[in-house]
Amino acid sequence: MSLIPVTILTGFLGSGKTTLLKRVLHESHGMKIAVIENEFGEENIDTDILKTESKEQILQMSNGCICCTIREDLREALQLLAAKRRKGLVDFERIVIETTGLADPGPVAQTFFMDEEIAETYLIDSIITLVDAKHAGQQLDTRQEARRQVGFADQIFLSKTDLVSDAEKDALIHRLKHMNPRAPIRAVHFGDVPLKDVLDLRGFNLNATLNIDPDFLKEDEHDHGHVHDENCGHDHDHGHVHDENCGHEHGHDHEHGEHCNHPHHHHHDDDVKSFVYRADKAFDPAKLEDFLGAIVNIYGPRMLRYKGVLAMKGTDRKVIFQGVHQLMGSDLGPEWAADERRQSKMVFIGIDLPQDILRQGLDQCVVEA
Fold it and tell me: Greater confidence, 369 or 347?
């Protein structure tokens, strides 16, 4: 039986999660979706819907969706839903989990890695973070939870962009890209986003391509001088990213050319940062495994998301790896094409990660020609 895809929806208070979930629960979209909502959150989908005399947690909506309010932990709610589905008591094809506005999505994601029974039933599709363009600056400045939510994202939806100027929006996009270069950013209006753009994003799919905009670090040359030398000349990456993103966010087309017009970009020194590592030589598998194991053991709690497409000694296939906090997985991907440059590419997103230690350690894991 195929695994049930799960979308984790996160975002700070007032970012639009409730609006989006109301649409999922009421719109006639023909999909059988179970929504798990943490009722201890600061905002509920719709308190009138959820108030029920029954002790039963699971409510059937008129459009075929199911709403499940969590009164205990997520693992138990997922097991309950799976058991009821096996018995034919409820019918759903996928799950959307809303985290509370102050939640760190990390432990939610880890539930699907750590618990064998859950892992045999469900598969994370993606983590989507909603960002309120009007209040994001202050939230990102003052609340680490907001920064962590951005760091975890596979997709970022920017709400309330009509309440800010183009310059403010571009500055925010630029800041978000520094924190998380692997998540496409898309402006949405009050939850009015097609569900096909919310579901089946395959952000956790190990074989998904790793698309990182090579220009995202261009302006911090004093911090990452050696990154830019590596990034220059990779126009094929650049085009690929823009093909994906242009349809989503018209700001992307001109955003790069405008960086230098916004000196206030420099003022943010967020603790959630990302960096890209590239290597043109193959990795020694044993050295890399030892090094990554040690790094994850020490810095795991501060490592939000990390992912790579790697060239390994001893195989003609790409090795794809990714992780959340201390949990890391890898898989063999497709073969390198004959005319393809065998370059390893990794992105690390975390809280005050020691870039120099990571770079030096990874440099020592490559096979000397």
Answer: 347
